[in-house]
Amino acid sequence: MNNDLHDAPFDLIFDRATVIDGTGAPSYVADVAISGDRIGMIGDLSDRAAVRRVDAKGLILSPGFIDVHTHQDNALLVGPEMAPSVSQGITTIVTGNCGISLAPLVRDTVPAPLDLLVSGTSGPFIFSTFAAYLDAVRSASPAVNAAPLVGHSTLRVAVMEDVTQPATDAEIEAMKALLDECMRAGAIGMSSGLFYPPARGSKADEVVALLEVVSAYGGVYTTHMRDEADAIMDSLDESFNTARSADVPLIISHHKCMGQRNFGRSVDTLARIDAAAEEQSIALDAYPYVAGSSSLLHDLAAKSSSTQITWSTPYPDLAGRTVTDIAAEWGISEDAAIDRLKPGGAIYHMMSQEDLDRIISHPKCMIGSDGLPHDKMPHPRLWGTFPRVLGHFCRERGLFPLEDIVRRMTQLPAQEYGLVDRGTLRVGAFADLVLFDADRVGDRATYDDPATPADGIEMVVVNGQQVGGTRRSGRVLTRQG
Ligand SMILES: [Zn+2]
């Protein structure tokens, strides 16, 4: 009797799955075995032993989706079952986008948009070091893996007297020291949100100085650009120059052309990105909706055809109503109504379908939900993003092949963010997997009923363990090499 390791039973075998491996290669039918936290074998495993078998006939088995754009830093701690993510087939999230991360910062109250991480409630910005935050995530044992970015605005709020100003040399040095601790603790890079008030005052030399720290550790730079409307071309150039000066890979966050008079400009922005990408590493992300969501801000409402409140500290019961509606009821202007409703959050209808279709079809466009998990009436992207791309954009409208969009949800982000042995379904890789029904997968979350799980996601596996009930097997994915 041969008793060697090769004959030990596998922990789990998916029988007759249609495998999409994340590389963009055509799908094929095979059995896939899991051994511990890794993929053990792929092929005809009908005579191999397994502790458990799952009949995957007719279903797609692919690497678990990587949500590259989230604000779930705090959700990992307070809602570690991560239902909005898991129900979409997501197995890894990137946190700390748009310049805002939960650490390193100790503060009771924070300016918008940092309040998005906690939706206006006071605290819990309680982590003076990034290492302490990552330890808290590990202790919470979330259901999905988390790859953390450090937010530039968080660093500014932590060290600066007046965040509306450019940082002084001393403040830049203080931010560099904080950032160095974050990168040593394992952060995968830095994000910026130059559009937002706490970062708008920063100059290129400040961002470059910080990115040089990121570069020394091999991290990435993601940016919510200074302008996604009239001055979008200048903002693209600023992003390219900054990343190139510090020699870091660049990711343009939630790319969009905002406001009606900028509709159609994605032809030019994508051409500019393609041209720059011949000289430096550039990728982008997008969510599959023509409405965005953020803090309640006048300059976003001004570009929006309709603004719907997602949360309001003074008027919590008005979440879900539009500003137009509320202003009419109060008999005041919409601007005055916004002032009364703040601090709060909103959904802004401000993009064109044509631009969205073009951007989300780009070969370097990854998918990021940008979901806001603590909002009372959140944008439906929190629960719907990945199934909406697979169902509505891929299957129903045929904008791209399934293998290509799975690649942009798995292998491409793993490569861009340096997530080793993730994002590809192959022997030896981590067993982060999603089993889904390509004929049925689709979003059900709507603007009126946003917290609705999607259809067609049959099973999710994180680090070899099926997610469900109290089983939570996510890890903190720190920067490697
Ligand atoms: Zn953003």
From TrEMBL:
It holds the Pfam family Amidohydro_3. Residues 54-207, 334-467 form the Amidohydrolase domain. It comes from the Bacteria. InterPro entries: Amidohydro_3, D-aminoacylase_insert_dom_sf, Metal-dep_hydrolase_composite, Metal_Hydrolase, Metallo-dep_Hydrolases_sf. GO terms for molecular function: hydrolase activity, acting on carbon-nitrogen (but not peptide) bonds, in linear amides. This is D-aminoacylase. The lineage of its organism: Bacteria, Pseudomonadati, Pseudomonadota, Alphaproteobacteria, Sphingomonadales.
